[in-house]
Structures are given as structure tokens and as C-alpha cells.
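User: Hi! Is it possible to get a structure for several chains at once, not just one? Here's what I have:
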Amino acid sequence: MSRVLPGGVPGREYERDPHPSGDMPTVSPGRDAASPPPRGRRRRAGTVSTRSARRGRRIRRGFVIAALTVLTVVFAYPFIWLVSASFKPRGEVFDNALIPKTFTLENYLSVWEQAPVGLWLLNTAIVTVLAAVTVTFSSAMVAWGFAYFRFRGRGALFALVLGSMMLPGAVTMIPTFLIWNALGLVGTLTPLWAGNLFGSAFYIFLLRQFMLGLPRELFEAARVDGASQWGVFWRIALPLTKPALAVTLVFEVQAVWTDLMRALIYLRDSSTFTIPRGLKSLVDAFGFGGEWHWEIIVTASVIATIPMIIIFFLGQKQIIQGVSTSGLKG
Amino acid sequence: MTVATPAAPGLSAPAPAPDRRRARRRARRRNLFSALLFLSPWIIGFVVFTAWPLIYSAYLSLTDYDVINDPNYVGLQNYRDLLQDPKVFQAIGNTIFFTVLQVPLHVIVALSLALLLNRAGRSSSFFRTMFFLPKMTPPVAVGILFLLLFNGQNGLINTVLGWFGITGPSWTTDPAWVKPGLILMSLWTVGASVIILLAALQNVPEELYESARIDGAGFWRQSFSVTLPMISPALFFIIVVNTIAGLQTFDEAYTAFFGAGNTTYGNDAALFYVIYLFQQAFTFLHMGYASAMAWVLFVIIMIVTAVQLLVSRRVVYYEGEGPK
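Assistant: Yes, the chains can be modeled jointly so their relative placement is included. Here is the combined structure:
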């Protein structure tokens, strides 16, 4: 059995060299391959720590927590300020007080009067759901093709997948626009998600990595029991891949919800705008166009951001896990 | 119709019968067919949305094309024009200035935060969440925040600077301060890098520190001989990804300084390469010229990434045979 990319395959932990320093013999006679070898030095239990050392540690920890608290305030402040500004009347937007001197809901009402924000939210939701579902499904299919089947040229084909990840979007941007233009779909929401029908290299890579870690015996057994190739994928592999599918879904939701450039290229009419495109049009209309109406822009920004924050808190575990693994397998 | 029977143990295997070989070949072909069925979305997508655009964009870069009329072949004229377009050079200069300053700062800030979080123990998950949150703000909203917080007269940043007796610059209008401001703003969204680095830090085996301590290594020695090499793959990943993203900066600067139809509202200090490319393509409909610009960007990114990969071979340490 050939194992491509050994790292990241669950269940292989024990095969790692327990002596990374390299000065220990790797092969020791009499070691049973099935039983995990003894770990290196263990943290000695009951190390004597004097009271002053313990106090020093507590002070250092207190310092760390204090520093983090200050930094958290710095990081949270712009956002809190934005929300607070959305409740301030026109003249006070730039007032830096965190609690509005005059509290008003007027801005939220006037945003809805000035622009079809509800429609923008709906458009964004439609595009986002379609994009995330299609890209997750098709990427999973392709990832399964790479993870399960062995055929000649598989390595080269997968290298092509990885290579296409490096391609800057600017190079394909114009011909892609021309394709949608030729199909008469410029001005509709379709170009914003339909490209996702074909999977995306990064997610294919991510999902394949995960699928390689699933026990192959399970799939062989299902085949022997008479399951079709599709059945193995649909009924066995896909349910087992759920954690990785969740990561893909959430990543794509974030990417599509915030995407400005594609919306700028493809959307013409205000009634088809997504939230980022709509926000940009508000900046153009109430900012650069003439007299600044910051309260409208600020309030719309809050409306655009809230759904993302909700999604973050719903998918927090998946997002954090997904992000923390993505940097390690390069 | 013959059923292949496995050779009895102890006997040498019989020569493969021709129809057995045929059956195996048929099985292999069926296997390849199912594999291709699963791969088909990507294969179709690759041909239609990557391979063809790549070829067509190379062709367009040799033409004049405004979408309405047919492309008109002009040879290398676009590339020659490019070399004489002061705005291209300004855009390249802006982009490099931004990237060269932003990437190291981003890494320093992310690493500092990750190191602090790594020390925070149980409470770190709360702080981690808070640092990640700005990443969920749409870039357009970040661009808007930039205009507000960095406003020269009454923006929050200058108000805070005022408390310390510093008169802040006019971040959004003074060409010298537009990019530094945007860099500061971009540091707000380091959250993802922090999480990647934190995960890497938590994966460093405790044993390594203990043996280093026994060998008499102090804090700094441990940091440079254990921590840094062990997290170098994650650091490298962040540097590469951020460099590529930095060279393609668009959303925030476009929101704050440029608008549809008009060339520019603010000033050209924020004219980044992809913004200029976008304007050429979709505002002026110079599709050929923009395609040439895209290829120049492609080449620049390839060179930068290749250099980073070469350097990484000497600097980045991978445990065992591959990154863990």
C-alpha cells in the first residue's frame, strides 16, 4: 500500500520517530510494531516548586492576561464603535463617545428607505447558499476521486489541481467575464456562484487530505457487500467526511458573503446587488457623490457584518479547527 | 468463462491465462471510468475556467479589445505601452511598498499575539475568538472603517494620538500617509494567522524544551533553537499567502478611494496594481491592455513565490519526511 502524504493521517501517530533529536537509535531490537514505542522523556511528576517560583509564575500569567485584555479591547474597539455609531444621529457619527449621546433608530429606518438593503441581503443569501453547497459537493466528489481510486496519471492530475491554486485570479478574470458575457448571464447572480459547480482546488486538497485518513477497509467491505461506487461515496465516505465538509462550507460562506470584485464585475442593476456591492454603491452615492451621509454608510456596514458574526459563532469550532490545520500542511 | 482460481500454496503460479488478463484489463478500465466520473466536475471546470482563460488571456494581451468590437491583433504593443505608462509604475510601486511593509508587520503582530495566547492557558479560547472576529468583517466595511477611524480631523486614531500630544497626519488624504494607514488597518485582520501560529506553537513537543533546558539553554536560546524552527512551516505558509494576497490588494483600498465610472476620488497613493488592472478592464474596457497587465502580475507573483520557496529550503525545518 502506498501512502501519499503520511503526515496528517490519523492513526499513524505511533509511527513517528519518538526521538526527534536524532541521536537515539531509530530501530531498537525487540520493538513490536503494533505496540507504541515508549515516548521520550516524560514530564517528571511532582517537581518541587518553591512558593516564590510559583508566585513568579502567577505574576507572569497575570501579566499575559492583562496584555491580552488590552489587545482585545484594541481589536474589538473599531467594531464596537461602528455599531455604536449606527445608533447616533447624523451630526454625531464622528463623535468618539462609545455610548451615543442621542440614541436613535432613525438610521436603520432610513437605510431601508434609501436602498433595497433587504433585497441585497436576500441576493447575498441566495448566492452564498448556492455557492457554498455546490462547491462543497463538487469538491467532495473530486476529492473522493483522488483519494479512493488508483489509476495511472493520478499524481500528475493532482499536481495540476495544486498548481491551479497558485494562479492569480487576475489572469483568468477577463476571459471568465467574456464566457459569462457570451452566455448572456452578465447582470444576473449566476456568475457569482455557478463557477463553483466545478469544485475548487483548495477545498479538493483539504477534503482529499481528510478522506485519505478514513479507514479504507470500510470502503472495500462495502464494495464486497455489493455497494456501487456512488453508493460508497454517497452513503459511507460523505457522512464520515462531515467535519471537513463543515469547514469547506463555512470558509466558502465567508468568502462569498464578503466578495466585492466579482459583484463589481457582474452586477449592473441595484436590484441584483449583493451586500458588498450595495455597500460600495452607498459609499459612492452618500460619500463621494456629494454630501457625506456617514450614518447611512455606517448602518449598512453593520447590517452587512452581523450575519457574518452570527455565522462565525455558529461555526466557530469548525472555523478555528479548519484555520489551524490549513497552515500546517503546505 | 473460466473462473480464476488462486494457485494452491506451495505451487508456482500458473502463467496468466489470456482471458484472465483481459478481465483484469476490463476491471482496470472500469475503475478508471468511475474515477473519471468522480473527477469530471474538476476536469470540465479546469478546461473551461482555467485552461481556456489562460490561453485566451495570453492571446488577448496581444490585441486591442473593447468587448464590443472583435479583438484586433497588435503584437507586443500592449507590453510596450505598459513600459511607458507612468501609472503602471506607480501602481507597482504602491503595491510593493504596501506588501514589503505589511507582510513583516503582519507576521510580527500575529506571532506576538500567538505567543501571548500560548501562555494564556485556559482563557486563551476567549481571546482567540476576539482576535479572529475582525476577520469576519467584510473588506468593504473595513474600507469604510478606514475612512472613518483614520479621518484627519475627527477620526478616532488622531483623537487618541491627540491625548499623547501628537498631531496625527491626514491619513486619508495625504499621499504619504495613505498606505501606512491602510497597512495599520490591515493588521486588524491578522486573526487567521494568529490561529495558524497558535496551533503550530501548541504542536511543539514539550520534551524538546525540557531537553534544551537540561542542555542549559535559556529563554532566547530555546526560542531560536526550538520554537522558531518547529513553527517555521506555519510561518512560511503565512508569509507566502500574505505576500500573494498583498500583491493583489483590492477591496479595502478600492472602497475607500475609487468608484465606478470615475477614475479616482481620493488619490493615486492607493492605486494598487489590481485596482488599476480592474479599471483598465472594466471601466475603460481596455481588455487587451488589462490582460497584458495580468500576465505581468502573474510573472511577478511566480518570481516572488519561487524566491520564497528557494529561501525556505534553507530556512524552513520539516519534521521527518513531510510537514506535520
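Chain A has 14 helices and no strands. Chain A touches chain B through 106 residues (CB under 8 Å).

User: Great, thank you!
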